[in-house]
Structure formats: structure tokens, C-alpha cells
From TrEMBL:
Pfam families from the UniProt entry: PH_16, RGS-like, RhoGEF
Name of the protein in question: Rho guanine nucleotide exchange factor (GEF) 1
Family annotation (SMART domains): RhoGEF (SM00325)
Matching PROSITE patterns: DH_1, DH_2
Main location: cytoplasm
Name of the gene this protein is made from: LOC115183490
Gene Ontology cellular-component annotations: cytoplasm; membrane
DH domain: residues covered: 197-382
GO process annotations (BP): G protein-coupled receptor signaling pathway; intracellular signal transduction
Molecular function via GO: G protein-coupled receptor binding; GTPase activator activity; guanyl-nucleotide exchange factor activity
């Protein structure tokens, strides 16, 4: 296909590939892409070279302490836990590399999808014509990344047979035991009030973790697997809706049993918590949850649009949501549960620390709480960046630059403005006081290098020059540009209005003063 030709063309030109890699490294987690490209190298290696390269591949991407650790299929991680990578046969090594490469497909497709509204030409000095790096998949129109965009992609998650045999799923439907009911009465009497409170909070941590894993398993068993089985969505589509779900469930499940190592009275929990939320395990958990939570808004929008357009899909979702496992929650309520869980950890751990008397134990728990806060802050930032990107893509899709034509200079510079290739810092409604008699309601978009003032007209977001007189518009002089370069502008407060501020902007036509009014003093300070 045309897209496959473009992709192979980019792969064959190191300079173009380097620019694409730079784009990914600056805006995304690059581990999946680097792993995918590294795996491609094995196609032309000899037996001896394969053995050597596989160990490097393992150390870079598969080892639990690897800086670029990626999502690993269950069959691969299971075997690597039992066998040293250098002891595997060449056939096994090649098979595992292929499996790992396929597992990176959803993440790479998602990297492509937010910037795939229109083909984006990449002009390079060594090229006489533009190379279109990206496909023209319009995510906002409800089209999810298709299979086959990358070579050899036909990704499928864990087989239903494997998951249905997992005894954890049966255990999850049962409520966890209460520590008081399983603790001898004499032992209970010997506990101080503070220790009793400590056990209560630990039990709350355990019980809520159990409930959370149960709800995550609903996404997997009530929605993901049946949707794939009924061929309502492809495996690749589902992997972009529920990214890293299998591994997130595994991490929560591995963590839960360790809380009950010493009957139902938990003596020490600090080391367990620190191992869970700190170090390499904490970094891996942060990476998985960032990926899942940052896709959340996009995933909900795709599901909403699919339900509107596909009656069969809509019927399936409504029927699935009516099942008792969903506990009267809709899919749109269940997907955000991982993000909600992250917000609970710091307070729960701080409450345990307050009831802990042992100094070292208390320090470990407090340190774990701090690790949870760092993870939460990181995930919040990832979510914000992805939501900002989706907002910019929406504005870009609706952007109309024809209003810049009165200024030939502005129109030539910004007629191909791509908002989505910039970083958004803030956006919100403002009032633009062009003159005392003329005010406009605009959507202010503050980017890393520009302040953009968009006017909403029907479904369009219009960039339009303004003037303080009709004569200026006709002559194309002394117009107020809706695009302000930040490196040529500075702010001043308006003494008579605390919600207002001046932007003084210097460009080729001379200095211009903009008077902008926020909806509140708080919004102005942002």
C-alpha cells in the first residue's frame, strides 16, 4: 500500500528515520519504537550474531531492571523467568524477539494516531520532495488504527483459554476475608488501640486493592475478550483502548498476596510497599499506569463514537454493562478506576504510617507514600499532555486560516500552521477588546512559542486579523494579528481591571497593544 511504501522509504533513509525518532523521543516514551526497530535487526543475523544480540536485546528491553523495559507477552516472560536468555536456542530467541516486536504494535500505533489527521510532510535538506511519514487515519472521525500499518502486525492478547484457567479470576469474585474474623480473640485483646487501628487501615488497603483488581478483571473478561471473540473490535484496536491492561492486572495481583504473609496480623509491611512503589518495580508500574491512564480520554471518546455508529457494538456494550460483575457501573465509569486508585495510595499509606510505632517501619511506609505521590504526579502530567495533544488535534482539524489573507505576510507564514506539532501550556476563553466599541470572544491557546487567539464560527476555529479602523483592514496595515510570537511580546497589567492584561507585541508593521480580559482574576494569573 502507499502507507507501507512510505514507511519502508523512511526506514531505508537514516536521516529521515532519525528525525522521526527525535519526534518520538521528545513527545513520547520511545522504548516501544526502539525495541521494534532493534527487533528488525534479527532478520539478517547469523546464528552466532543472534545469540550475542539477543542477550543485548534482553538487557535493553526485557530485563526487569532495563531502562527501556517494554511490555512483554506472557509466554515470553514466563520462559525468561525460568531460563537464562543466553541458554535459549536460536529458534526460541528469534521467536521471542518476534513476539516482543508484535507486542509493541499498539503503542507505536497510538504514537502515530494522535498525529494522523492529515499526512504530514517532512522536508529535509537531503530530500528533493516531501516524505510523508504518517498515515492519514482520522482518529476524531472514529477510525481506530488498523492492523497492518506496521510490518507483520497481527497482535492478539492472551488467549481466553489461558485466562479462564487463571484461579485468580475465581478468587476475585469472593470478598476478601476480614482480619478480625480470622484472628483469635486472645490475640485481638492483646493489641493496643493504635495497633488495632493500624491493622484496620492495612486491612482497608488490602480490601480496596482486591476490589480494584476485581474491577480491572471486568474490563478484561466482560469487555476485552468477548469484544475480540465476537469480532466487534480487532485485537490491535482493543490494545489501544486498554493499553497494558494485562500487565497492570498482573502487577496488582502480585502485590496483593504479599500483604497477608503473616496470617491476618500484618507485622511488617514497609519493605513490601517500598519494593512495590519504589525502585525499578515502581518505575515499571509508573510506566504502565501512565500509558493506560493517558489513553483514557481518547479511549472513552472512541468507544462513545463507536456506540453511536455501530448498533451491534452498542447492543453488546449495554448488555455487558448489565451483568452483575459490573456492579451497576458503565464502561465509561470502569475505565477511569486505575487513575482513581492511584489517587488513593498516598493517603492510605500515610494513615498506616501514623499508626506505626517502629521507627524503621514507619520511615519505609512514609517513603513508599512519597513514591506513590511521585507516580501520581507523573501520571497526571502524562494525562494532561495527552489531553492537550488531543485538544490541539481537534483545533487543528477545525482550523481556518483564510482570515489571515488581509496580511499577505501573515498568511504566507501561518497558512500551514500545525497546532498539534507544538506544546500547549494553557487554553481557555478570553475577551479581546479590539476597541472600546468592538469586543470579541476568543479561545486563547498558549503554546510554547505562540499565543493564538481563535474565533469560533460554527464548527470552525478561525484565525482572523483585526483592526481598530476599517481603513487599516482595507490597506492591510496596522492590523492586529491573531498570532503573537512570545519572544517579541511582553505583558502589562490593566490598572482599572484586575481581570484584564495588555500584551504588547512588536512585528514588522510596528508595535501593537492587545487588551485581553480573562473570565476571572484566577484565570488571568494562569
Amino acid at each position: 500500500t502507499v502507507h507501507e511504501h512510505h514507511r519502508e522509504l523512511v526506514k531505508s533513509r537514516p536521516t529521515h528515520l532519525l528525525v522521526f525518532l527525535q519526534h518520538v523521543i521528545l513527545q513520547f516514551d520511545c522504548s516501544s519504537l526502539l525495541c521494534y526497530l532493534h527487533a528488525d535487526l534479527f532478520k539478517n543475523l547469523s546464528t552466532k550474531e543472534t545469540k550475542k544480540q539477543f542477550v543485548e536485546f534482553y538487557n535493553s528491553f526485557l530485563d526487569k531492571s532495563a531502562i527501556l523495559r517494554v511490555q512483554i507477552p506472557h509466554n515470553v516472560s514466563f520462559e525468561l523467568d525460568r531460563t537464562r536468555p543466553d541458554l535459549l536456542s536460536e529458534e526460541q530467541q528469534r521467536k521471542f524477539v518476534q513476539d516482543v516486536q508484535l507486542a509493541q504494535a499498539p503503542e507505536i500505533l497510538f504514537i502515530l494516531s494522535p498525529i494522523a489527521f492529515i499526512p504530514i510532510p517532512l522536508y529535509l535538506p537531503l530530500s528533493s520532495s516531501p516524505v510523508f511519514l504518517l498515515s492519514s487515519i482520522s482518529v476524531d472521525e472514529g477510525v481506530l488504527p488498523p492492523e497492518g500499518v506496521l510490518p507483520g502486525l497481527s497482535l492478539s492478547g492472551p488467549t481466553p483459554q489461558q485466562e479462564e484457567q487463571d484461579p485468580r479470576l475465581l478468587e476475585l469474585e469472593q470478598d476478601p476475608p476480614n482480619w478480625r474474623e480470622h484472628t483469635p480473640p486472645d490475640t485481638l485483646k492483646d493489641l493496643s488501640k493504635k495497633e488495632t487501628k493500624r491493622q484496620e487501615v492495612i486491612n482497608e488497603l488490602f480490601a480496596t486493592e482486591h476490589a480494584h483488581v476485581r474491577m480491572l478483571s471486568v474490563l478484561q473478561t466482560v469487555f476485552w475478550k468477548p469484544l475480540e471473540r465476537e469480532e466487534l473490535m480487532t485485537a490491535t484496536e482493543l490494545a489501544t483502548i486498554f493499553p497494558s491492561l494485562d500487565e497492570i492486572i498482573d502487577m496488582h495481583c502480585e502485590y496483593s498476596p504479599t500483604l497477608r504473609q503473616h496470617n491476618f496480623i500484618v507485622k511488617a509491611i514497609g519493605t513490601t510497599l517500598l519494593n512495590r512503589f519504589g525502585g525499578t518495580e515502581g518505575e515499571w508500574f509508573q510506566k504502565l499506569t501512565s500509558r493506560f491512564c493517558s489513553h483514557q480520554t481518547w479511549a472513552l471518546e472512541q468507544l462513545k463514537m463507536r456506540q453511536k455508529k455501530d448498533p451491534r457494538f452498542n447492543s453488546f456494550i449495554l448488555e455487558a454493562e448489565s451483568r452483575p460483575q459490573c456492579r451497576r457501573l458503565q464502561l465509561k465509569d470502569i475505565i477511569p478506576t486505575e487513575m482513581q486508585r492511584l489517587t488513593k495510595y498516598p493517603l492510605l499509606l500515610e494513615n498506616i504510617a501514623k499508626c506505626t510505632e517502629d521507627t524503621l517501619e514507619k520511615e519505609s511506609i512514609q517513603q513508599s507514600a512519597e513514591c506513590c505521590k511521585k507516580i501520581l504526579n507523573h501520571v497526571n502530567e502524562e494525562v494532561k499532555q495527552m489531553e492537550n495533544l488531543l485538544t490541539l488535534k481537534d483545533y487543528q482539524r477545525r482550523l481556518d486560516t483564510s482570515g489571515l489573507k488581509p496580511s499577505n505576510e501573515l498568511y504566507l507564514e501561518y497558512k500551514y500552521l500545525d497546532l498539534a506539532q507544538r506544546r500547549m501550556i494553557y487554553e481557555g476563553p478570553l475577551t479581546w477588546r479590539v476597541t472600546k466599541e468592538k469586543t470579541l470572544e476568543v479561545q486563547c491557546v498558549l503554546l510554547g512559542d505562540l499565543l493564538v487567539l481563535l474565533q469560533k464560527q460554527d464548527d470552525k476555529m478561525v484565525l482572523k486579523c483585526q483592526s481598530k479602523s476599517n481603513i487599516a483592514v482595507q490597506e492591510g496595515k496596522q492590523m492586529l494579528s491573531p498570532i503573537i510570537k512570545l519572544d517579541s511580546a511582553f505583558l502589562r497589567e490593566v490598572a482599572t481591571d484586575r481581570k484584564a492584561f495588555y500584551v504588547i507585541f512588536t512585528w514588522d508593521s510596528g508595535a501593537q497593544i492587545y487588551e485581553l480580559v480573562a473570565q476571572s482574576v484566577g484565570e488571568r494569573k494562569k
